[in-house]
Amino acid sequence: MATSPSTRPRRVGKDHWLYIAVIIAVIAGVSVGLIAPEFGASLAWIGTAFVGLIKMMIAPVIFCTIVLGIGSIAKAATVGKVGGLALLYFLVMSTFALALGLIVGNIIHPGSGLDIASAQYEVSGESEGEDGFLMSLIPTTLLSPLTGTSVLQVLFVALLVGFAVQQMGSRGEPILNGIRHIQAIVFRVLKMVLWVAPVGAFGAIAGVVGETGWGAVGALAVLMVAFYITCALFIGVVLAAVLWFVSRINIFSLMKYLAREYLLIVSTSSSESALPRLIAKMEHVGVSKPVAGITVPTGYSFNLDGTAIYLTMASLFIASAMGTPLSLPEQIGLLAFMIIASKGAAGVSGAGLATLAAGLQTYRPDMVDGVGMIAGIDRFMSEARALTNFTGNAVATIVIGTWTKEFDRPRALEVLSGRMPFDEKMMVDDGHETSTSEPVRA
């Protein structure tokens, strides 16, 4: 007999222990930096070593996610109107989230007043030289970017390979499956790297606090509070307005309906843990099976609102903390890079950190070492990222359903009012609904 996800034990103990270890490491790093500043400053190399491990993962993470992302675009586009509307909506909303992160970051200037430039180590960056940007984009060989340090070249080759596989049609499926297996290995290694995050966070925080004192603690607190407030505003204002004007649905009623999924996400720090349940609940609330089945999985790769806000605000924080603010052209270029590079890694803990390092390596390689400081608070920000991503995908599913006339609003109002509760017994091992009645299509 199938076991309901509500009764099946969840394997989240390791994540909880890592979360606790990071908290202890941050507290220890702050304490060491304040009590013994010189000793704390001397530990900065530990954080730099951890950043080196993250940098090691940049090329394979970007290559796999971009190639598979382009494959997902092709697959979504083949389903016609639903896929096309979904991809357009995701692009607009993700871009808006990135821009919102940049706006808020430029208003509050997180990290201003700090001077951690002296704590950084020399980093070899992307050099355009006299041949200019175009020549720096072209690699020596097709495979050389995967063993080099040029993120732009990795991105360029990934785009070429992705479109080439896309043009192969069904013959390209085995190649995409192979890259999925490679991606699984890459993310497994990334998870292993993240197990030393407490050590890296301790060294980075101790080094920064040893150099700047309480200023670093205050700056990190400002960043976290500002990030949470920005995510709350994005959900409570932007997503709420979109959902109401398009579908006439109150977002807070929807969030109450998804309360159990929110608890699951908080316990795992990943929105992917609730993906099957979101599909089932969207069908139950009145979205047709085809729309829910297409929009939700595609949104998990292309509609990463929380991750977008995190990437831009963290980048501005590092730039301000190092006393080298990003110029407007650099911010726009970083935004464009993040729109592409952030796709496909929503459910993988730590992938956001690798993407952040990739963006900085591309536009300001001298700032990459600042990622070590962000690693100390990354876990504290992961819940807000995951919750925002999840809410954005729930809203997107209803909006796409409304646009395609595949959403039963009267049924939704009944469900959200509590008169048609979701039956947990309808969930099977994979978390997908098996016996809901088809909603009446508007």
Write the layout of secondary structure elements.
Layout: H1 13-35, H2 37-42, H3 44-56, H4 58-77, H5 81-108, H6 132-137, H7 151-167, H8 173-194, H9 197-212, H10 214-247, H11 251-257, H12 259-268, H13 275-285, H14 289-302, H15 305-321, H16 328-341, H17 351-363, H18 371-403, H19 409-416
Helix pairs in contact: 1-9, 1-18, 3-9, 4-5, 4-7, 4-8, 4-14, 4-17, 5-10, 5-14, 5-15, 5-16, 5-18, 9-10, 9-18, 10-15, 10-18, 12-18, 13-14, 14-18, 15-17, 15-18, 16-17
Task: Describe the protein's architecture and organization.
Helix 10 (214-247) packs parallel to helix 18 (371-403). The chain has one domain: Proton glutamate symport protein. The protein has 442 residues and is an all-alpha fold. It has helices spanning 13-35, 37-42, 44-56, 58-77, 81-108, 132-137, 151-167, 173-194, 197-212, 214-247, 251-257, 259-268, 275-285, 289-302, 305-321, 328-341, 351-363, 371-403, 409-416. The two termini are 36 Å apart. It is 71% helix and 0% strand. Residues 1-12, 118-133 and 428-442 have low confidence and may be disordered. It has 19 helices and no strands.
